[in-house]
Amino acid sequence: MIDGFKRALALGAATVALAGGTVLSSVGIASATPSPHGDHTATRHVDRGRCHMVHGHWVRVWRDGRGVRHGHWIRVWHRERLVCHHRR
Fold first, then answer.
1. Distance between CA atoms of 35 and 37, rounded to whole angstroms?
2. What is the per-residue pLDDT across 9-36, written as a single tens digit (0 to 9) for each?
């Protein structure tokens, strides 16, 4: 009888832990979803007369060949960013 009680208690605790983990993981996934493309809600307060979005682009960069004879060119992605020109 006591073994059956312990088994039922362990099964109940495991069920509660599993359900709690599922809820927490779904909340984490929902908060990590990216904003829609083109939505710049974080930059609405910025003066648009002095700021603009620079689109992402590829840049060729020379990578020095440390430890080897020759270096080489690689392509590096620069992501989209907000650029502001401040008046002085």
1. 7
2. 777 877 777 777 665 566 556 555 555 5
